[in-house]
Amino acid sequence: xxxxxLITGGSSGIGAATARGLLEQGHRVAVTGRxxxxxxxxxxxxxxxxxxxxxxxxxxxxxxxxxAVGRVVDSWxxxxxxxxxxxxxxxxxxxxxxxxxxxxxxxTNVLGPALLVQQTLPHLxxxxxxxxxxxxxxxxxxxxxxxxxxxxxxxxxxxxxxxLLVAKDGIGVTLVAPGVVDTPFWDERGxxxxxxxxxxPEQVAxxxxxxxxxxxxxxxxxLVVRPAGQLG
Length: 232
Fold this sequence. Notes:
Elements: E1 4-8, H1 13-24, E2 28-33, H2 36-46, E3 52-56, H3 62-76, E4 81-84, H4 99-127, E5 130-134, H5 147-166, E6 172-178, H6 201-212, E7 222-225
Parallel strand pairs: 1-2, 1-4, 2-3, 4-5, 5-6, 6-7
C-alpha cells in the first residue's frame, strides 16, 4: 500500500489538484472540507475507490481536526504527509470587513494549520513524514489594509516555528507560497486576473508534490511559485 496523505481544504482548487496528483502516484489520500456537495463531487470525479477518504469538517475546529486525523489513522494505520491547504480571503480591506468575518478568516488561515500540526505530530514522528503549509505571496509582501495578508504572514511564521520544533525528529516542513492562482478564491472578486499571468491549481500542486517527493533527509523550507510575468 502507498503512503498516506491528509489534505485540508481538498475538495477544490489547489487541494483537489494536489490530491489527484498524489493519487496518481499511488498515495492513499484523505481530503477535508466544509462543503459536503463539493466533497461528494470530488470523490465521484477522482474515481479512486478505497484509496480516497472525504471527510466533512471545519479546519479551524479542534474537534473536527482530531476526528479527521483519527479516521485516517484508524482506516490506514499511518500518516506520512499532511498538507494544510484550507484557507480563504475576504474581498475589500479591513475597513469593509465585519469583525466576525475577520475572526473566521484568522481562525481558518492561522489556527487551522496549527491544529493540523498539533494533531498529527505523533504520527509524523513515527513515519518521519512531511508537513506542507500552503501560504501565499501575500505573506511575503504587504498591501494596504489586507487582513488576508496578515494571516499569511502569520502562517509563514508558523512554518518556521514548526520546523524548529521538529527538526530533531526528521520531519520535513515546507512552505509553498503561490502567486496568483486561478481558483474559486476569485469568485467574489469578479473573476481571475489576466490568465496570462495566472497559475493553474495543477501547477501549484506540482510544486507541492516536488516537496513531498524529496528523499528522506532532504528538507525544502520555502518555495515561492509565481506565474511568469507577476512582478509583485
